[in-house]
C-alpha cells in the first residue's frame, strides 16, 4: 500500500529482534504462541508523533465530520471519510483534503444515512439503512444503480472492512442468555448470511430477545476485531492483553498475550461515570437503585485493550483504553506476525481512523475545540 496523495513515507525501521528470539512457529514459519511481559512492552522503542497534512476542520460549512468520523479504504490510495447522516468525502491523489461524494437525500440514487461505505464490483457502495438500500456510485460519485438490502434486527449492523462486506450481530442463544458477538463475511450486503468468522461471548451482557436485561458495568469490556485482506481476522476480548490472528476457517496463525493489567478503577471515575449516565439517560429511564447495581457489576480494573487499527496486509495498532484519570492513551505496534515492535502515545481525545506505513489518520479536537481530521507521522526517535 502506498500513500502518495499525502506524501508520507511507507515504512518504519526494523522491529526489535529481542522479542522475536526463541519463538515457536506455526504454519509457513509464522509465530504461533508468544507471551511478553508488561516490562517488555514498556521497554519497546518509542515512536515520535509529528504533524502531517490537515484534511479538514469541522466548522459545519462542509462535509467534514463534526462529532463521529468513520473512514474506510476504497483502494491503495483512496479513502472514504464521513459521519453517518452527513455527506461522504473522498480523499485521493486529486483531492488530498477531500471532495464531496454523492448526494444526501431520500430520493432514488441518494443516501439518507450512510452507515457503511466500501468498494463493490467496480463501484463504491453506500449502505443506507434508513432507506434499506445499497446505493452504487461510480468513481465520480454519479449514480449507477441501487439494490434493496434486508433490514437487520436492532442488534445487527452491516458494514465494510476495506473491500470486505460484513454483518456484525449481538444475540443470545436463548432468552435470558449471555450475549454473543458474531461476525459474518458476506458476498454482498443483499445477503443476511455468510461465512461466520467470529463467535465470542460478551459475558457482561444478557439479552431477552433483542433487549438487554440485568445491569451492565460502568466500564464494560467488549470484543474488538479487525479483518485483513488475506482472509484473516485479528481479535481480542479486551479484558486482558490477549490478541489472536486466525484465518476465516478458524486456523490460528498466532496468539500474543501479556501480563499487562488494566488500570484500577477509581472512586472519582465511578462518580464521574454515574453523573454522565444520569445526564444522558432519557427522562424516567433510570429507576431507583439502577446506578448502584451498575456500580456493583463494575470490575475493579478497566479493560486492557480499547481497539485494533489495522494496516491492510500488514501491521496493526493495539489501542489502550481512555480513562478519565489519564490524559493520554498508549498504542502498541505489532508486526503482521504479532511481534510487538514500537509504542507511542496520543492524547486521550484523539481517535485513530486509519493506519498505513508511517501514517495515521486521526479525528481530534483543536485548541479552539472544533474537531479536525489530520494525518500524523510516526517516526523513530533519533
Overview of this protein structure:
The protein is built from three helices and 26 strands. The protein has helices spanning 38-42, 267-280, 290-296; strands at 33-36, 47-57, 70-75, 78-82, 88-91, 99-101, 114-120, 123-128, 133-137, 143-148, 156-161, 164-172, 177-185, 195-208, 211-213, 224-227, 232-236, 242-247, 252-258, 307-310, 316-319, 328-334, 340-347, 351-356, 359-365, 371-380. The strands form six sheets. A five-stranded mixed β-sheet has the order 1-19-18-17-16. A five-stranded antiparallel β-sheet has the order 11-12-13-14-15, with no helix packed on it. The longest helix is centred in the last third of the chain and has 14 residues, at 267-280. The chain is globular. It starts with 32 loop residues before the first strand and ends with a strand. The model is unreliable at 1-30 (pLDDT under 50).
Key traits:
382 residues; mainly beta; five-stranded mixed sheet; five-stranded antiparallel sheet; 26 strands; globular; disordered N terminus
Quick summary:
Helices cover 7% and strands 43% of the residues. By secondary structure, it is mostly beta strands.
Amino acid at each position: 500500500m502506498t500513500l502518495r496523495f499525502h506524501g508520507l513515507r511507507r515504512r518504519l525501521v526494523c522491529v526489535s529482534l529481542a522479542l522475536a528470539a526463541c519463538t515457536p512457529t506455526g504454519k509457513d514459519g509464522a509465530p504461533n504462541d508468544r507471551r511478553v511481559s508488561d516490562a517488555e512492552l514498556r521497554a519497546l522503542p518509542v515512536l515520535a508523533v509529528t504533524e502531517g497534512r490537515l484534511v479538514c476542520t469541522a466548522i459545519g460549512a462542509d462535509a467534514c465530520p463534526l462529532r463521529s468520523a468513520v473512514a474506510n479504504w476504497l483502494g491503495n490510495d483512496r479513502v472514504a471519510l464521513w459521519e453517518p447522516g452527513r455527506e461522504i468525502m473522498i480523499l485521493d491523489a486529486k483531492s488530498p483534503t477531500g471532495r464531496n461524494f454523492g448526494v444526501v437525500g431520500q430520493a432514488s440514487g441518494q443516501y439518507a444515512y450512510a452507515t457503511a461505505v466500501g468498494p463493490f464490483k467496480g463501484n463504491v457502495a453506500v449502505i443506507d439503512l434508513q432507506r434499506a438500500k445499497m446505493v452504487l456510485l461510480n468513481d465520480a460519485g454519479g449514480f449507477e444503480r441501487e439494490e434493496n438490502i434486508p433490514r437487520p434486527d436492532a442488534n445487527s449492523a452491516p458494514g465494510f472492512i476495506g473491500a470486505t462486506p460484513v454483518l456484525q450481530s449481538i444475540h443470545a442463544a436463548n432468552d435470558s442468555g449471555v450475549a454473543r458477538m458474531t461476525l459474518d463475511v458476506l458476498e454482498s450486503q443483499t445477503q443476511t448470511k455468510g461465512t461466520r468468522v467470529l463467535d465470542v461471548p460478551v459475558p457482561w451482557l444478557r439479552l431477552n430477545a433483542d433487549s438487554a436485561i440485568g445491569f451492565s458495568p460502568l466500564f464494560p469490556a467488549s470484543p474488538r476485531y479487525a479483518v485483513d485482506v488475506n482472509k484473516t481476522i485479528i481479535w481480542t476480548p479486551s479484558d486482558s492483553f490477549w490478541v489472536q490472528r486466525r484465518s476465516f476457517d478458524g486456523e490460528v496463525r498466532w496468539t500474543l498475550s501479556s501480563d499487562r493489567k488494566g488500570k484500577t478503577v477509581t472512586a472519582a471515575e465511578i462518580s464521574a461515570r454515574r453523573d454522565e449516565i444520569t445526564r444522558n439517560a432519557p427522562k424516567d429511564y433510570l429507576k431507583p437503585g439502577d446506578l448502584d447495581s451498575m456500580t456493583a457489576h463494575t470490575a475493579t480494573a478497566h479493560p486492557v485493550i480499547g481497539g485494533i487499527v489495522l494496516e491492510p496486509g500488514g501491521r496493526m495498532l493495539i489501542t489502550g483504553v481512555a480513562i478519565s484519570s489519564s490524559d493520554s492513551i498508549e498504542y502498541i505496534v505489532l508486526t503482521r506476525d504479532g511481534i510487538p515492535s514500537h509504542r507511542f502515545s496520543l492524547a486521550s481525545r484523539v481517535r485513530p481512523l486509519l493506519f498505513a506505513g508511517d501514517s495515521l489518520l486521526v479525528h481530534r479536537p483543536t485548541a479552539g475545540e472544533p474537531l479536525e481530521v489530520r494525518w500524523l507521522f510516526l517516526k523513530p526517535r533519533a
